[in-house]
């Protein structure tokens, strides 16, 4: 009984660790879509702010070419932000699935299927769908895209080597992934159709409630909740009552206008209470970006610096903060909590000091400069801004270092089970490349349902015995090419070989230094008598060792031994090893084993690698 609490704590700790690792993986995958936002933000921010200034009469620009340029900039940036959910779906899928393009295709298919499903279910439930990318649906913001991207990547990692019956062989491997993702997206769309409307209704109700409180409290609540709603893509809904409903003002012409922004530009001296955003968008978040850059590992600082500096510049100039916020939102939620609180405090701070500032696009330097003459006490931003920058920098730096938060450039370099399996697969791929004569001998790679088809420069350089030892049921020479019959594994083996060849160096060539450890033919020595039962013995060895997933690495050594690295030594069944034909087992440090199997150790090692791939 006394062990139960400690066991429960261990289980809880493991689950928390797995959750943080999962969030870290998501955070890393978000860096790709986040990296495209700065240029979109600059285009939309500059173009939109200048055009708004012209439309409101603040700027006088009569040149048709300049107006065309500003309109082009605005219209170039808008589609990127309108398509953020799809961009995040693609980026997350690529990040989690190791940049395989099929996962991106699956994410696109999954996203549009999800949109279509939500539109149908929404109509059935009596809701009014709104166009999202031209498809009647429910807008779930970037979270919908992230969910689809994660599902597409998860299905890719699970099924990209799937084997199907021979009559469905064309759809095996990667071709299966977009198909299964489409069906999964139908389920996602149905669930979100039920879950999302109540969530959005609560946000609308709270928005209306908060906007009617005391101005100081209301702007604080506005600031905090607006930041918390941004990841869901619902901050625009939250903004509506504040921008266009709060307060009223009668213009000299007798027209009654409502809303903070509308009243400000109509000349209401009491409007302009939402200027606090200038403090954290022009100063606070850029300082946070610099802190994350400085806290990155030395070997990653150049890469992280280029992203963070451009994101900081975007935030300062245009007030677009997503490139910075999405870089730490998922990997360090505690930072986002402090950020939301500081953002909320910025609004009552300027309000209580009597500052009244307007803006048309966002709280960036462009808006600040455009409407400086219309503002009340705008110089307070320049006085308080550096103070806010110092607070943000200090809080972010202290929390990142003290709590060891995995912000960009600080990720752990651990080998997961998936990475270990990938290493085994690449080991098999290397042996196959060498068996076909090395990289320089391979002209092209292809696969059909059961055969690995390889175009070659010189067929004589191929080691057919080695191919058979690696699991080929047969080898056929066709002109200047060769077909190795690996069954339905062929598509997966081709993919592994392509991945290996993309990154391999000299080890992909049959040079003296890169010769495989297993020697199938040695000049002057008679070839060994191969074991016809090698495939079954390899299977039995793996089963006795705790299964293929428990074996991290296998190779032959000392002519008669298998050298193995295992994950869990307690899973090994020594009696089963002896029954399978092993003559002895030696345990070494670091979960290394030597298994005495006789003169065909090289053949057994090759067979085991083939079955582990």
In words, what does this structure look like?
The protein is an alpha+beta fold. Among the domains are: 417-508, Glucose permease domain IIB (Gyrase A, domain 2); 534-612, Gyrase A, domain 2. The protein contains 22 helices and 12 strands. The strands form 4 sheets. Strands 5-6-8-7 form a 4-stranded antiparallel sheet. The chain has a 4-stranded antiparallel sheet with strand order 9-10-12-11. Strands 1-2 form a two-stranded antiparallel sheet. Strand 11 and strand 12 (592-596) form a beta hairpin. The radius of gyration is 31 Å and the shape is elongated. The model is unreliable at 414-420 and 512-528 (pLDDT under 50).
Write the layout of secondary structure elements.
Layout: H1 3-35, H2 37-55, H3 64-82, H4 84-96, H5 101-124, E1 130-132, E2 135-137, H6 141-159, H7 176-211, H8 215-229, H9 235-244, E3 248-250, E4 256-258, H10 260-266, H11 277-295, H12 301-318, H13 322-328, H14 333-352, H15 365-370, H16 379-402, H17 417-435, E5 442-447, E6 451-456, H18 464-469, E7 474-478, E8 481-485, H19 490-503, H20 534-544, E9 551-557, E10 561-566, H21 574-580, E11 584-588, E12 592-596, H22 601-612
Antiparallel strand pairs: 1-2, 3-4, 5-6, 6-8, 7-8, 9-10, 10-12, 11-12
Low-confidence stretches: 414-420, 512-528
CATH superfamily of the domain at 417-508: Glucose permease domain IIB
Total helices: the number is 22
Sheet-strand content, in percent, reads 5-15%
Radius of gyration: 31 Å
Strand order of the largest sheet: 5-6-8-7
């Amino acid at each position: 009984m006394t062990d139960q609490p400690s066991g429960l704590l261990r289980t809880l700790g493991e689950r928390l660790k797995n959750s943080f690792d999962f969030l870290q993986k998501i955070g890393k995958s978000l860096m790709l879509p986040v990296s495209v936002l700065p240029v979109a933000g600059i285009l939309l921010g500059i173009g939109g702010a200048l055009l708004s200034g012209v439309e409101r009469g603040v700027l006088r620009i009569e040149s048709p070419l300049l107006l065309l340029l500003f309109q082009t900039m605005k219209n170039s940036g808008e589609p990127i932000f309108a398509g953020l959910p799809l961009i995040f779906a693609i980026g997350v899928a690529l990040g989690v699935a190791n940049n395989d393009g099929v996962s991106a295709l699956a994410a696109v298919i999954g996203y549009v299927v999800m949109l279509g499903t939500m539109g149908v279910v929404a109509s059935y439930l009596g809701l009014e769908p709104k166009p999202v990318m031209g498809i009647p649906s429910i807008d779930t913001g970037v979270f919908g895209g992230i969910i689809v991207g994660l599902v597409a990547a998860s299905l890719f990692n699970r099924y990209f080597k799937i084997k199907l019956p021979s009559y469905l062989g064309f759809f095996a491997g990667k071709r299966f992934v977009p198909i299964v993702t489409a069906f999964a997206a139908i389920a996602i769309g149905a669930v979100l159709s039920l879950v999302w409307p109540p969530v959005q209704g609560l946000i609308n109700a709270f928005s209306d409630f908060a906007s009617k409180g005391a101005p100081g409290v209301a702007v604080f609540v506005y600031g905090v909740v607006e930041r918390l709603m941004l990841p869901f893509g619902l901050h625009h809904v939250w903004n509506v009552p504040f921008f266009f409903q709060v307060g009223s003002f009668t213009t000299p012409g007798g027209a009654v206008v409502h809303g903070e922004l509308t009243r400000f530009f109509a000349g209401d001296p009491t409007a302009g209470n939402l200027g606090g955003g200038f403090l954290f968008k022009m100063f606070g978040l850029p300082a946070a970006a610099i802190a994350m850059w400085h806290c990155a590992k030395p070997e990653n600082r150049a890469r992280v610096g280029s992203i963070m500096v451009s994101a900081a510049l975007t935030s300062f100039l245009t007030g677009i903060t997503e490139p910075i916020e999405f870089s730490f939102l998922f990997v360090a939620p505690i930072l986002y909590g402090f950020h939301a609180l500081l953002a909320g405090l910025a609004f009552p701070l300027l309000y209580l000091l009597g500052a009244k500032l307007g803006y048309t696009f966002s709280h960036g330097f462009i808006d600040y400069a455009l409407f400086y003459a219309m503002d009340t006490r705008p110089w307070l931003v320049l006085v308080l801004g550096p103070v806010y920058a110092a607070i943000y920098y200090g809080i972010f730096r202290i929390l990142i270092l003290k709590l060891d938060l995995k912000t960009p450039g600080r990720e752990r370099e651990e080998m997961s089970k998936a990475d270990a399996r990938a290493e085994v697969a690449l080991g098999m791929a290397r042996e196959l490349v060498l068996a076909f004569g090395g990289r320089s001998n391979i002209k092209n790679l292809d696969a059909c349902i059961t055969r690995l088809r390889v175009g070659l420069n010189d067929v004589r350089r191929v080691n057919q015995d080695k191919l058979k030892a690696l699991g080929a049921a047969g080898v056929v020479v066709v002109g200047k090419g060769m077909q190795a019959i690996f069954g339905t594994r062929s598509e997966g083996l081709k993919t592994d070989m392509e991945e290996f060849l993309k990154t391999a160096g000299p080890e992909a060539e049959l040079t003296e230094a890169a010769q495989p450890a297993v020697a199938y033919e040695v000049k002057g020595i008679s070839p060994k008598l191969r074991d016809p039962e090698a495939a079954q013995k390899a299977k039995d060895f793996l089963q006795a060792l705790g299964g293929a997933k428990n074996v991290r690495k296998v190779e032959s050594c000392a002519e008669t031994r298998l050298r193995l690295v295992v994950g869990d030594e307690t899973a090994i069944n020594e009696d089963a090893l002896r029954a399978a034909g092993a003559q002895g087992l030696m345990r070494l440090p670091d979960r290394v084993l030597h298994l005495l199997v006789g003169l065909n150790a090289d053949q057994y090692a090759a067979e085991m690698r083939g079955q582990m791939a």
